[in-house]
Amino acid sequence: MARSVGKAGGTLSKKLLRIAGVLLGFGLVVWLLFKLLVPWLSALALPVALLLVARLLQEKEVERTLVAHVKGYVGEAQVGRVLAELPSTWQVFHDVDLGGENADHVVVGPPGVFNVEVKNHRGPVLARPDGLWIRGKRRDEIVRQAWRQAHKLGELLGLEVQPLLVFLGEEVEGGQVGRLPVLRTEDLVAYLKTLPPRLTFAEARRAAEVLRERVR
Hints:
Blueprint: E1 3-5, H1 10-37, H2 45-57, H3 60-83, E2 91-97, E3 102-109, E4 112-119, E5 125-128, E6 131-134, E7 137-138, H4 140-157, E8 161-167, E9 172-173, E10 176-177, E11 180-184, H5 188-194, H6 201-214
Parallel strand pairs: 1-2, 4-8, 5-9, 8-11
Antiparallel strand pairs: 2-3, 3-4, 5-6, 6-7, 10-11
Helix pairs in contact: 1-2, 1-3
């Protein structure tokens, strides 16, 4: 089993907890105001508070943010569990701070250093040499994100970092966009294990030392 540092989806779980705290605080304030201002209807305080929280959750921006965070957390957590199946010669660093953004997972093993960018999207994914499509819409910004993070990691570590784009679900057609591998979650470990060794022990140790300090 690979050695893991950090918690998969750690940043997103903190954001979800903050959102839950805000909603809970809002509901509590409504409940207290109702109890104080209309005490003769105190029996309705809790239902009214719950109703207003439910209405707030139906606001498009709140709903969109919440759904995106939940989907992101589920995807990162699932891929984190899959990466744990790598052999003990590998190390996995979850939620690595890159300054202004975070890398979902950084994997260090005999074949090198890999930035694993996770996406949890419904619908078919088509990866072609000339671009990426999700549900028929071109999404090359996701490809640019994976490369940007790999370049940041490369500058940080002084090593070449290979980005990997991993999608949850079965509907992934094609395996590469340019030089960027596009994989299903269940194919990730098998792909990594087939790669030839190229990283020295000293390079892996230095990379691990830097990454350990960057885990959120």
